[in-house]
Write a structure and sequence with these properties.
- Helix 10 packs across helix 11.
- A hairpin with a 4-residue loop joins strand 3 and strand 4.
- The chain has 2 domains: 190 residues, 3-Layer(aba) Sandwich (Rossmann fold); 98 residues, Orthogonal Bundle (Helicase, Ruva Protein, domain 3), CATH 1.10.8.80.
- The protein is of the alpha/beta class.
- It contains 15 helices and 11 strands.
């Protein structure tokens, strides 16, 4: 990508909006979720989608990869899985008479990890290594994953029997936890109308190669010292709030800055504004804060709405840069 192309990032904004609109025709009401997927992809991170079955999580991940012409694979997690079911394994080649590595489904540009909390911790750890290191270790050798590499994981918040809750270390590897809810009546009606629509021809100008180039440009998006202070003050406020037992870490602040830069670029700007910081605040913080028991008691046990209210409240208490 040339410097001139970077300056005219309005082209990127238009391309992203076209893709959001096209996916929105197939998965009604998905434009905002797609934006968070783009932010995660450009900042070299991952997304966790949480919602009951039937909210088109699988279709959303598939359509996202299809419109970017990237390799897509899906893993349906079960309690009897082994780490090699994800990473791949060594097999004996009878013709050449030696062991060779057979790649697992993790070798994809976009990986849908379906119901990630239904598999044991050792399998989750194998996925964690790939997410963090962008490689897997099998048979004593390291194997690099394709680039770009994006994990879109899902979990069902209702059914908890026979599940393995994600450890804090794994939760923190997801840039966003996006809570999917039931569509409005109008959106649900549009879903029925969209069933008969034929698939649009893919005519995009953002592919895997372009994504890798755009990632280099994210760090060049200007974030003033006031914006950086704004982010730091928000993060530090999570550690001081009376209803939060464990607040966000310094690593969260670094991820926050990269994410807001990516969001600014997707909006066609070369600089970050406070709205970028507030736009991603809930989804970036809601799985990184551990609330005190009294916070949940006051809300009747609804952890999602409680943590969102606390995030909104603490951000309102931090002075917004002018």
């Amino acid at each position: 990508m040339t410097e001139n192309e970077y300056v005219d990032i309005g082209n990127l904004r238009d391309s992203v909006r076209r893709i959001e609109a096209r996916i929105g025709k197939k998965v009604i009401g998905s434009e905002r979720i797609v934006r968070f997927m783009f932010v995660a992809l450009l900042s070299n991170n991952h997304v966790l989608l949480e919602g009951v079955p039937g909210l088109a999580k699988t279709m959303l991940a598939s359509e996202f990869s299809r419109h970017l012409c990237m390799d897509f694979k899906r893993i349906q997690f079960t309690p009897d899985m082994l780490p090699t079911d994800i990473t791949g394994t060594m097999v004996f080649n009878l013709e050449e008479r030696h062991l060779q590595f057979r790649k697992g489904p993790i070798f994809a540009n976009v990986l849908l990890a379906d119901e990630i909390n239904r598999t044991p911790a050792k399998v989750q750890s194998a996925l964690l290594e790939g997410m963090e290191e962008k490689k897997v270790s099998v048979g004593g050798d390291d194997h690099d994953l394709p680039s770009p590499f994006l994990v879109i994981a899902t979990q069902n918040p209702i059914e908890q029997e026979g599940t393995f809750p994600l450890a804090e270390a794994l939760m923190d590897r997801f840039l966003f936890r996006y809570i999917l809810t039931y569509p409005s009546r109008e959106e649900e009606l549009n879903i029925l109308k969209s069933i008969t629509l034929r698939d649009d021809d893919i005519d995009n100008d953002i592919d895997a190669t372009k994504i890798l180039s755009l990632r280099k440009e994210v760090s060049k998006v200007h974030a003033s010292e006031e914006i950086m202070s704004y982010i730091v003050d928000i993060i530090r406020r999570t550690r001081e709030h009376e209803l939060i037992m464990v607040g966000a870490s310094p690593r969260t602040a670094a991820k926050y800055l990269t994410a807001v830069r990516a969001n600014a670029m997707l909006n066609g700007r070369e600089y970050v504004i406070p709205e970028d910081v507030r736009f991603i605040s809930r989804e970036l913080l809601n799985h990184r804060l551990i609330l005190r028991p009294e916070a949940l008691l006051e809300s009747g046990g609804d952890g999602v709405s409680t943590v969102n209210k606390i995030i909104d409240r603490l951000i309102s208490q931090v002075a917004t840069p002018k």
